[in-house]
């Protein structure tokens, strides 16, 4: 059996580990545009900050490919020939497959700002190469401007905060982290980050750039030496356009299969069912990427695995303030446990839809399990669990299953 | 493999498991000296309310969500024991986001901590040895 995996991020690694959990002998080829090293992408902000050494960036040990008997091709995949069952590399070489996993990730999206081409010292913040380029340009006298107050933009701000003179972050949205926080949560986190010297310009977009200056719609001019664009990422779907069904991402089912025979997809390039809302979504998060990849790998190797519990979820910290969120913020809202930070639970129809915790995030996974499993809220003490996540809120029978049986 | 299991009805809520856990992790020889004047931060925790109490620690799941979700590869399954490499953990708390038991917690140094069945210190779970009433046991249950 010839397995081919396009991409060596978390989804690709999950795919390789999934295949090897069932098939030790089949030929596994990994096509990696970024070279052979498997690094943890979310660590790039820690690398820039100097909190993780370059040697600490590895997502898997250096002998991963050897130990798992995988061949690596350090060249970009240019096309998939589904009829001929081969991946065509940029150089023209064909890599034949019996089963293919597309784990091609996402790419930063840079809007066509007027005058952006005149700006020197502009960076994205999505890859190790980006982080190294930005890291080399940092200097104590330089002013940084970051476009985008999402997870990438703000992790970048934290990462460079002690290495530049000032940081301004702009976003079109009226609040920071608009994809994961509601107004109240965003306000609490924004206050904390501002307290560390970062300035925000929200509800505000850049009208045009001149070298060293951004002009906002409001008319304000912001001088900068370094520009980081972190507006968002787009799923890399091009390889399967016309080959399999795509929407924003490559559509996959619970087995990580695309609509094309013998082709699977996983991670940031894929679009799957959100178990907390029932909607089809790109959930570009490392845990989902790994688990979709692993699921694909097991199925590619003839196994039977289903991953139908993907939900949007994030754990992230900024300047020591932790945030954990999951699910969707619809239905009734419950504020609880206000003592140590900000917390909201969202529920309707006897189900938890989502939650936000800022500050005290202990045992958050118990909430995540409720929305992942669709646990009926009338089977537990909802008042109690709102106040504090714990197993105490479950029935003693449910607890016995959780704590008294092998899991 | 052998895991720690809870017999809720036998739990006295005495918290000795927490103290034995903290002692085992301290690497000290003398319990009184190891725990004197410190607020312990054990890897096993008693939940209690009214007359119910029970201990919660890592279940060492066969399909460990924490390991699969770990951003850095700091969490691994080693012969079924879910282990944390504190050097590689950056404290993102993704494991806290996904653990359905609330069994992973922050440590003092920024990394997370969790029960590792005492494989790195005393060899077998100190909490179980220290439980006076058999409310936690270390055994094979399939």
The strand line-up of the biggest sheet of chain B is 1-8
Structural class of chain A: alpha/beta
Based on Cα principal axes, name the global outline of chain A: globular
Greatest interface and its participating residue counts: A-B, 48 and 41 residues
* Annotation field: number of helices of chain A: 10
What is the structural class of chain B? alpha+beta
Shape of chain B: globular
From the coordinates shown, what is the CATH architecture of the largest domain in chain A?
3-Layer(bba) Sandwich
Main beta sheet of chain A, described?
Answer: 5 strands, parallel
Q: Give the overall average pLDDT of chain B.
A: 95
Helix content of chain B: 10-25%
Average of the residue pLDDT scores of chain A? 96
Number of E strands of chain B: 8
Write a concise keyword list for the protein shown above.
heterodimer, A: 407 residues, alpha/beta, FAD/NAD(P)-binding domain, Enolase-like, domain 1, five-stranded parallel β-sheet, 26 strands, 23% helix, B: 142 residues, alpha+beta, Alpha-Beta Plaits, two-stranded antiparallel ribbon, 5 helices
Topology summary:
The complex is a heterodimer of chains A (407) and B (142).
Chain A: E1 2-6, H1 10-20, E2 27-31, H2 44-49, H3 64-67, E3 70-73, E4 77-81, E5 86-89, E6 94-96, E7 99-102, E8 106-108, E9 122-123, H4 128-137, E10 143-147, H5 151-160, E11 166-170, H6 183-194, E12 198-201, E13 206-210, E14 213-216, E15 221-223, E16 226-229, E17 233-235, E18 250-251, E19 263-265, E20 270-273, E21 280-281, H7 286-300, E22 313-318, E23 321-327, E24 332-335, E25 341-348, E26 351-359, H8 364-373, H9 382-387, H10 396-404
Parallel strand pairs in A: 1-2, 1-7, 2-3, 7-19, 9-16, 10-11, 10-16, 11-12, 18-20
Antiparallel strand pairs in A: 4-5, 5-6, 8-17, 13-14, 14-15, 20-21, 22-23, 23-26, 24-25, 25-26
Chain B: E1 2-6, H1 16-26, H2 31-35, E2 45-49, E3 52-56, H3 65-69, E4 75-78, E5 81-84, H4 94-98, E6 105-106, E7 112-113, H5 126-130, E8 136-140
Antiparallel strand pairs in B: 1-8, 2-3, 4-5, 6-7
């Amino acid at each position: 059996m010839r397995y081919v995996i396009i991409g060596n991020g978390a989804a690709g690694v999950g795919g390789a580990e999934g295949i090897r959990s069932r098939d030790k002998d089949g030929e596994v080829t990994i096509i990696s545009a970024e070279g052979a090293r498997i690094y943890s992408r979310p660590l790039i902000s820690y690398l820039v900050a100097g909190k993780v050494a370059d040697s600490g960036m590895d997502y898997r040990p250096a002998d991963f490919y050897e130990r798992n008997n995988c061949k690596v091709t350090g060249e970009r995949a240019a096309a998939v020939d589904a009829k001929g069952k081969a991946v065509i590399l940029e150089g023209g070489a064909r890599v034949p497959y019996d089963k293919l996993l597309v784990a091609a990730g996402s790419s930063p999206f840079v809007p066509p700002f007027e005058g952006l081409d005149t700006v020197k010292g502009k960076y994205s913040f999505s890859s190790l190469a980006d982080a190294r380029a930005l890291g080399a340009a940092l200097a104590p006298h330089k002013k940084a401007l970051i476009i985008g107050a999402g997870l990438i933009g703000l992790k970048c701000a934290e990462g460079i905060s002690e290495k530049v003179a000032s940081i301004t972050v702009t976003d079109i949205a009226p609040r920071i982290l608009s994809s994961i926080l509601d107004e109240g949560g965003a306000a609490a986190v924004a206050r904390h980050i501002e307290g560390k010297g970062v300035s925000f310009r929200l509800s505000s977009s850049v009208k045009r750039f001149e070298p060293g200056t951004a002009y906002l719609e409001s008319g304000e001019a912001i001088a900068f030496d370094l520009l980081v664009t972190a507006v968002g990422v787009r799923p890399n779907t091009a390889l399967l356009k016309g080959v399999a069904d795509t929407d924003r991402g490559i559509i996959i089912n619970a087995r990580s299969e695309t609509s094309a025979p013998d082709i699977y997809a996983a991670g940031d390039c894929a679009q799957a069912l959100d178990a907390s809302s029932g909607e089809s979504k790109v959930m570009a998060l490392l845990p989902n990427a790994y688990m979709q990849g692993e699921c694909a790998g097991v199925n590619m190797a003839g196994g039977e695995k289903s991953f139908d519990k993907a939900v949007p979820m994030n754990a992230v910290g900024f300047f020591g303030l932790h945030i954990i969120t999951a699910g969707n913020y619809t239905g009734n809202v419950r504020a609880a446990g206000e003592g140590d930070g900000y917390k909201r639970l969202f529920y309707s129809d006897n189900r938890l839809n989502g939650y936000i915790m800022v500050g005290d995030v202990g045992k958050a996974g118990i909430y995540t399990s409720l929305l992942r499993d669709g646990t009926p809220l009338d089977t537990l003490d909802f008042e109690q669990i709102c106040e504090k996540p714990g197993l105490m809120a479950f029935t003693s029978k449910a607890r016995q299953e959780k704590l008294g049986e092998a899991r | 493999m052998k895991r720690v299991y809870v017999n809720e009805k036998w739990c006295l809520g005495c918290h000795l498991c927490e103290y034995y856990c903290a002692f085992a992790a301290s690497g000290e020889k003398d319990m009184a000296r190891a725990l004197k004047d410190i607020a312990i931060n054990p890897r096993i925790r008693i939940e209690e309310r009214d007359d119910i109490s029970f201990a919660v620690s890592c279940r060492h799941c066969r399909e460990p969500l924490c390991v699969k979700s770990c951003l850095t590869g700091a969490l691994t399954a080693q012969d079924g024991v879910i282990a944390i490499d504190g050097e590689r953990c950056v404290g993102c708390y993704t494991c806290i986001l996904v653990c359905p038991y609330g069994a992973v917690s922050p440590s003092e140094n920024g990394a997370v901590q969790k029960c590792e069945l005492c494989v790195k210190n005393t060899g077998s779970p100190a909490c179980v040895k220290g439980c006076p009433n058999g409310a936690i046991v270390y055994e094979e249950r399939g």
